[in-house]
């Protein structure tokens, strides 16, 4: 059985519910994971999504900030929500599908503008969050699991438009890349996107600040799909829907897709 999963930082699920619905109609992933929903769960447009074939969901929301949700065509049950780094933010939700696959949906803190722990508390919180993720997966090694989300780090040189220029920019600094690598190693996670698309520049985020984001193309791959080794070889057909970044009133992120034969 094949199922397709997508992850997308929607930057307000209520403001951009029509974009979510367009993606559901046009692409129809079996599972859609959203981040930065910026909404309490009871205010999310769950009824509208159910009418399009997504009656099942698990979500962790809060007013105006953060928020994660997983919408599914088939039943899904909540199996956890983590509050790392003592932030008390809605940044994680985990759900299990009927086939036994657990999906972790994360929204890692962005980290502010200055990559210094002492000068920037948001950057310190980001590093602490990643450390807690590492320790969690080291203590309880996951199996038959997929981790997705806006991890707010572009780890590889070809995950950013200019590696050298980005080395001191939050999201691509060596210390962030190191912390993310430790998270990945702790859970033995396989980067599914780069397993499928091994080489070449690859982005999922383009800044709103660019007058013409498409022409400038100064992107970063901040959004990820990982899988545990016991199911990573079942993954295929990875892709990033770049054109969605050009939809009317878009998120600054594009959806990332992968399929699994499980």
Could you describe the 3D structure shown?
The protein is an alpha+beta fold and 262 residues long. It has one domain: Endonuclease/exonuclease/phosphatase (Deoxyribonuclease I, Chain A). The protein contains 8 helices and 12 strands. The chain has helices at 17-26, 46-51, 121-139, 163-166, 174-186, 192-196, 213-216, 229-232; strands at residues 2-9, 31-35, 56-60, 68-72, 76-80, 92-97, 102-107, 145-150, 190-191, 223-227, 235-240, 256-261. Strands 3-4-2-1-12-11 form a 6-stranded mixed beta sheet. Strands 5-6-7-8-10-9 form a 6-stranded mixed beta sheet. A hairpin with a 4-residue loop joins strand 6 (92-97) and strand 7 (102-107). Helix 3 (121-139) runs parallel beside helix 5. The longest helix is centred in the middle third of the chain and has 19 residues, at 121-139. It is globular and about 45 Å long. The relative contact order is 0.16.
């Amino acid at each position: 059985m094949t199922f397709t999963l997508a992850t997308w930082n929607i930057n307000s699920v209520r403001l951009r519910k029509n974009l979510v619905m367009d993606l559901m109609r046009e692409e129809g992933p079996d599972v859609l994971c959203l981040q930065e929903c910026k909404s309490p769960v009871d205010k999310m447009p769950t009824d509208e999504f159910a009418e399009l074939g997504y009656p099942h969901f698990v979500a962790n929301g809060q007013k105006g900030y953060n928020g994660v949700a997983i919408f599914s065509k088939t039943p899904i049950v909540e199996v956890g929500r983590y509050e790392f780094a003592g932030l008390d933010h809605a940044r994680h939700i985990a759900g299990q599908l009927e086939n036994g696959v657990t999906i972790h949906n994360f929204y890692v803190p962005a980290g502010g503008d200055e990559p210094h722990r002492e000068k920037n508390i948001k950057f310190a919180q980001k590093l602490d969050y990643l450390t807690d993720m590492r320790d969690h997966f080291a203590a309880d090694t996951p199996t038959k699991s997929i981790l997705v989300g806006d991890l707010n780090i572009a780890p590889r040189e070809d995950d950013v438009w200019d590696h050298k220029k980005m080395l001191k920019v939050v999201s691509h600094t060596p210390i962030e890349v190191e912390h993310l690598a430790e998270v990945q190693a702790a859970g033995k996670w396989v980067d599914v996107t780069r397993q499928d698309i091994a080489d070449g520049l690859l982005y999922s985020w383009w800044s709103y600040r660019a007058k013409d984001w498409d022409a400038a193309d100064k992107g970063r791959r901040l959004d990820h799909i990982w899988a545990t080794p016991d199911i990573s070889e079942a993954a295929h057909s990875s892709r990033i829907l770049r054109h969605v970044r050009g939809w009317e009133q878009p998120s600054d992120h594009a959806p990332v897709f992968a399929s699994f034969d499980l």
